[in-house]
Recover the amino acids of this structure.
DNA sequence: CGCGACGTTGATTTGCCTCAACGATTGTGG
DNA sequence: CCACAATCGTTGAGGCAAATCAACGTCGCG
């Protein structure tokens, strides 16, 4: 449980009562590799904090191909924001890429938390701002960079993920096919 | 000044003192068409609320091409979120597409506002959440849709912009060249 | 009026995709 | 513990969506 308190402490300070209350709202859960936490078409009921392992959020297009919107490893939050906010069915799947330990904060508990400890408005505002910055950077990258440059950016930004993720998932994240990704990578290794 | 109060009232309720205080933090400004509000490489010091007209946020790539990250018309907010949050130089330009009236909320006033009227944490959290949803949807669209489908989505989502914006700006937003956009459009008009 | 931005159209090129075949690795049930 | 299937990554041939380059008509504006 400690990691999430560190995560919170980066942005707001809590007294022990508030800590107790916050922790009481979290539901621990273990996920096996490939286990689904949220399925396309369902309503997203939880914000998920990752204690260990790795989750991915992705959509399936009309041809059955997977497109990864986000990864979440230790210390990251993940959810289908659209569905969580609107409580409408979303298009996102959330799945464990590897065996993972997570903490779930339900939508209703999150609303309670805002009511009881308004400081959390600030906390989640800041988290959301950071996600927005990352997401907008990705839009800009998609508009202005070649696949090769997007891959280089990805390597700089998430060096640890580059080591651990299967190549097809990196390919999906940066928006190319696994075949093209493989060719691109060998081109880069052979120095251009 | 009323429009911004309506905008705020969608999410939080203020008493008259709070309204006074909030309004006192805003700086009105008129922009001529093509006037720059923020330049690439500068530090973003303001959140901007649009009263009338239209602004755009964009980057210039290494080949000198413009890529539009966001539009903001009446009732919308715009800023270089990365630069605003970190107070580091950003890569975004913000410019009036047409003559515009805006209200500026400086970073320091925004911080004061959070301190004096914590309800605004909630307000901007919700705004940011909505922006994040839109931005993530755009990432998914870029990953999974053809240019034609992205254009269709754009028409559904922003029917008023489709009428008013020059075609090259729509092209830039959805991520194609003006030439290709023109061909695509005439293809669609001639019914496939 | 004349210049510069915009939109259109055509010819050609290219970055990335599709499909297919193949070895290497993983994992899974018998 | 092995056999076999499934998944992953690699490589090659060919195809397509979108970019590039260039030429031209139109229009709004100084």
């Amino acid at each position: 449980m400690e990691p999430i308190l560190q995560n919170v402490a980066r942005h707001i300070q809590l007294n022990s009562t508030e800590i107790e209350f916050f922790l009481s709202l979290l539901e621990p859960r273990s996920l096996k590799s490939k286990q689904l936490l949220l399925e396309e078409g369902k309503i997203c009921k939880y914000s998920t904090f990752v204690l260990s392992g790795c989750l991915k959020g992705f959509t399936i297009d009309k041809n059955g191909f997977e497109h990864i919107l986000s990864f979440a490893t230790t210390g990251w939050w993940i959810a289908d924001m659209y569905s969580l906010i609107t409580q409408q069915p979303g298009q996102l799947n959330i799945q464990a890429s590897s065996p993972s330990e997570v903490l779930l904060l339900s939508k209703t508990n999150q609303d309670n938390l805002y009511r009881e400890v308004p400081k959390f408005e600030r906390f989640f505002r800041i988290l959301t701002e950071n996600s927005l910055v990352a997401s907008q950077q990705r839009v800009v990258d998609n508009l202005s960079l070649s696949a090769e440059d997007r891959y280089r950016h990805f390597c700089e930004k998430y060096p640890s993920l580059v080591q651990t993720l299967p190549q097809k998932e990196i390919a999906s994240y940066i928006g190319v096919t696994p075949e093209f990704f493989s060719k691109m990578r060998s081109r880069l290794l052979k120095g251009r």
Summary: Residues 2-111 of chain B form a domain with the Jelly Rolls fold (CATH 2.60.120.10). The radius of gyration of chain B is 18 Å. The mean pLDDT of chain B is 96. Residues 146-147, 176-177, 179-180, 183-184 of chain B lie near DNA strand D (CB under 10 Å from a C1').
